[in-house]
Structure formats: structure tokens, C-alpha cells
């Protein structure tokens, strides 16, 4: 009898400690509507940027994202991004995105012809300092065992 009670107690604890995922929380429609439109990344900053190179979104060096253009469509969570900086590889892609109630920005970069549900990998960044003309997306990266913030500063275009 004691074993059954112990087993029941352990199973209740396992289900009570269920973690939540960034993709399973509700969306923040107010934050999403504020992001609607065309944006440009004005700067990318992080401690040690003069010594450490960051490959942003597994696409290009973070400096190549300065001046990149982003379009966010809030009613269907789609958009586009394009890297056009001189001296960097040109890149353009459709994206899907949303902001959850925890201010997490969830992004998927889509390859040509691929639907979002077929893309299994994406990025989770924190949305910060959002105004009608600017916002920041903050990515956490590991630099020599220390978590470091990479801040992408967006300006309304």
C-alpha cells in the first residue's frame, strides 16, 4: 500500500512540474501589432564585439545585419528579412514570427519554397524597450562559458 501511495505522489509531482515552451504560450497581440511594418537594424552590440565574431542566426557575421531590412506582418505572423550591407553576402528570406506573453520573440527563417511547419528549428530572442519607432531583440550566446547578450536595435523605416 505504501508503494502505491509513493508511486501516486511521484506521478503527481512529475505532472505538476511540467515546463512551458516559448511556442506553447499565448501571443502578445499588442506587442505584435506595434511591430507591424518595415524596420531596419541600426546597430548590433555585445560586450567584446571588437574581439569576438558572432554568426547571427547561422546566416552571417552580426555586423552584416546592420542596415538589414525587416518587414513584419502582424495579422499572419509572416514577413521578410534582407541583408544588403556592402562587403557582406547578400541574403533574403521569408520569415515567420510571433511574440508570446513572456516577451519572447520566436523567429523562423524559411528557405525558399518551404512552409513554416516543415522548419523545425528557430530562434527565441527577448523583446525589450519597445516603442512606436524602435525596439530591441536580445539574443543570449555563450562566449567562453559566459552568457552574453547580443542586442539588435531596430528602427522604424
TrEMBL record:
Quick one: signal sequence residues?
1-22
Keywords carried by this UniProt record? Signal
Q: Which domain of life is it from?
A: Bacteria
Name of the protein in its database record? Lipocalin-like domain-containing protein
Species assigned in the record: Flavobacterium fructosi
Amino acid at each position: 500500500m505504501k508503494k502505491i501511495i509513493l508511486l501516486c505522489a511521484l506521478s503527481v509531482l512529475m505532472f505538476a512540474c511540467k515546463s512551458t515552451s516559448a511556442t506553447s504560450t499565448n501571443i502578445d497581440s499588442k506587442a505584435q501589432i506595434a511591430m507591424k511594418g518595415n524596420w531596419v537594424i541600426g546597430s548590433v552590440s555585445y560586450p567584446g564585439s571588437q574581439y569576438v565574431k558572432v554568426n547571427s542566426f547561422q546566416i552571417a557575421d552580426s555586423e552584416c545585419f546592420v542596415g538589414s531590412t525587416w518587414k513584419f506582418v502582424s495579422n499572419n505572423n509572416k514577413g521578410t528579412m534582407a541583408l544588403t550591407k556592402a562587403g557582406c553576402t547578400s541574403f533574403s528570406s521569408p520569415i515567420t514570427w510571433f511574440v508570446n506573453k513572456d516577451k519572447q520573440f520566436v523567429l523562423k527563417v524559411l528557405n525558399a519554397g518551404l512552409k513554416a511547419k516543415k522548419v523545425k528549428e528557430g530562434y527565441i530572442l527577448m523583446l525589450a524597450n519597445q516603442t512606436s519607432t524602435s525596439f530591441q531583440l536580445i539574443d543570449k550566446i555563450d562566449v567562453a562559458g559566459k552568457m552574453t547578450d547580443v542586442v539588435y536595435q531596430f528602427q522604424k523605416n
